[in-house]
Each structure stands twice: as C-alpha cells, then as structure tokens.
Amino acid sequence: MWLNQGINGIREKITMSSNKKISIVILNWNGSGFLKRFLPSVISFSQGNVEIVVADNGSTDDSAKTISTHFPKVTYIQLDKNYGFAEGYNKALEHLQSDYFLLLNSDVEVTTGWLDPLLELMELNPVVGICQPKILSLDRPHEFEYAGAAGGFIDRFGYPYCRGRILQEIEQDHGQYDNSTPISWASGACMMVRSQVWKSCQGFDSDFWAHMEEIDLCWRAQHLGYSVYVCPASVVYHLGGGTLPYNNPLKIHLNFRNNLLLLFKNLPGKQLASKLLVRMVLDGVAAFMFLFKGEFGSFGRVFTAHLKFYGMLPKLIKERSNIMRSSKNKTIKLTTRSSIVWNYYISKRRKFSEIAL
C-alpha cells in the first residue's frame, strides 16, 4: 500500500526524461513477421533514454534484412546460433551497458506510456530488483494472458500460477488485480531488471534453455535480498505461443524438467526433500494421465525429463550450495500455502482471488 501511495504522490517528479538508461532487448528467432508487426509500437511508445535492441538467435529467415530495411535505428546483435531463450539473452546482454534491462518477447504490443510506471516503481524503491507490467491477451484484450497475467506465484508443490490465470483457467480483466504488489516471479514475456541484479545473478541459468528460467532468476534475486513486483499501471498485450505451442513435446519436456531444477536449486533445506518427493509423485500421476488419454509421446517426455534431472544432480548440488551460501534472505518463502491442483480439481476454485496465499 505504501508503495502505491508513494508512486501516486510523486509520479510527476519521475518521468522518462530521467537520465537512467533502459535497454529494451527483444530476442528473435525466425521472427521476421513478428518484428514487422510489433516493433513499430515499441519504437513509437518507448521515449527517453532508451535503446531498442534486437538480438538474433541464429535466425535463418530474413530477420536481418527486416531490421536493416525497416528499422535502421534499432541495434541489431547477431548471435552465431540458436542458444535458446536463457543463454540467448545472456549473450545479448553481455554487450549492453544500461541501468535497466527490459526483456521483451517479439510478439508483444506495448501501449502509450508503458515504460513510465515501470521506471517509477524501480526508481522509488531500490529494493525492487525485477518487475513486470500487466500482461493481457492480444487476441482477447479483455482477458489476461497465460504467460504472466498480473504477476506470478508458486504453489506449495512448485506449480507456477498467476493473478488472473490458474492452470488453464484464464480470467477476464475487470481491474481486480490493478494494485502493485510483491509477487514470486515476473514473466519473461516482459520484465524489467536492474542491470546490477542481472549481473549479480549472472543472468539466466542456461541449463533451463527455455521455460521457467525467469522464475529461477526471480527466486535467486530474492535470495540476494531483492523483491519482485507487478506494476499493473503499465499494460502490454501478448500474442503468446509464438515459439512453442502449449502441447509441443519439447515444451512438455522442458516444463517438467525445469520445474525440478527450479525447486532443487532454490527451496529451503527443510522443505526440499518432502516437496520434491511429492512433486515427483504428482509428475507420475500426470504422466499416467497422458497415457490414459492416449498421448504416448507426452507420457514419455515426463519420464525423460526426470532422467535428465537425475543426470544433472552433481552440477545442481554445487549450484544449490552456492545459492544457499550467498543467500541474504535465509527465511525466504516463495511458495504459497495452497495447492493449485487441489484448488482447481477438488475445491473447484479457479480464480486467483479464491485461493489463499
């Protein structure tokens, strides 16, 4: 509440004329069509000390020509191959010197004044290390968008969910989540990060490749004493599904594997064994549900995800040790009391406002 009051009280004093530099970085892979469609709004509505960067993840389409022909003032970084979402951003941001990095998906349409509230929030409260805007669906503008909505949370067994999205249930936006508030994680579709936080965390964990790497980053930032916020005064519209559709086999594999990586690296010691065991049981149930529905490929992907996780354990143990040793917040608790699986399927509670944190 005090943060909202502070922003309202001195909003006029902090504008985009601030000398703080923002690098808006769009990671592109064969997205020439998205660049033509969405870059104009980013350019038009991103004023002030702002540079717009497209980092190309080894595209084979005409993305480079699209930038040079239609957007010559946009900085273009050509990577030598597709490094995935996590390492692609790591390599792109190595080249940049700014106060803030704003990671933006190539299929996001921004709105007038979208940067101002994000910058105000970060400038007013140095403890806020990462923030995101309210993310609505481009195709259904009155609904929240799956990947981020009005801020992300993690349930007691490690399942991510959002204000405005529980599992596959997406709410309409009636302004019910328009307060700026601490969250567990900000969406990689559109997130602002202090450059010093990014560097302190050494960026994304490249082992994630894609999916949940932003949750891991936010969790590690909070281990270092920073907070993560949603700033609904800023609004963007996300097309979604531009890279991997929901039922894509690779996406299923990454979601199950990366969730185990996330929990193993970041859960406090007293919670790790019990929650990881329950999560593995729940993953087994999910796998057999795929089998029951005849989705044999998805069934196999769950088990290969677990095998990959076991193979990574020696490295994960070292990473976890480093995170816990350097943690400045020994009582950090990002998971909520509720189980969204229980709430959704048993209690039939399918709105964020119905679920106890």
Low-confidence stretches: 4-10
CATH class of the largest domain: Alpha Beta
- Name the CATH homologous superfamily of the largest domain: Spore Coat Polysaccharide Biosynthesis Protein SpsA, Chain A
Mean pLDDT: 92
How many beta-strand runs? Answer: 13
The second-level CATH architecture of the largest domain is Alpha-Beta Complex
Gyration radius, to the nearest Å?
Answer: 20 Å
Q: What composes the largest sheet?
A: 9 strands, mixed
Describe the structure.
- With 357 residues, the chain is of the alpha/beta class.
- The protein folds into 2 domains: 2-238, Alpha-Beta Complex (Spore Coat Polysaccharide Biosynthesis Protein SpsA, Chain A), CATH 3.90.550; 249-332.
- It is 41% helix and 18% strand.
- The chain has 12 helices and 13 strands.
- The protein has helices spanning 2-10, 32-44, 63-70, 84-93, 115-124, 195-200, 213-223, 249-266, 269-292, 296-311, 313-326, 340-345; strands spanning 22-28, 50-56, 75-78, 100-104, 108-110, 128-137, 152-154, 160-162, 165-166, 169-170, 181-182, 190-194, 227-238.
- Strands 1, 2, 3, 4, 5, 6, 11, 12 and 13 form a 9-stranded mixed β-sheet that branches. The chain has a two-stranded antiparallel ribbon with strand order 7-8. The protein has a two-stranded antiparallel ribbon with strand order 9-10.
- Helix 2 links the parallel strand 1 (22-28) and strand 2 (50-56).
- Helix 8 (249-266) packs parallel to helix 10 (296-311).
- It is globular, with a radius of gyration of 20 Å.
- The two termini are 17 Å apart.
- Residues 4-10 have low confidence and may be disordered.
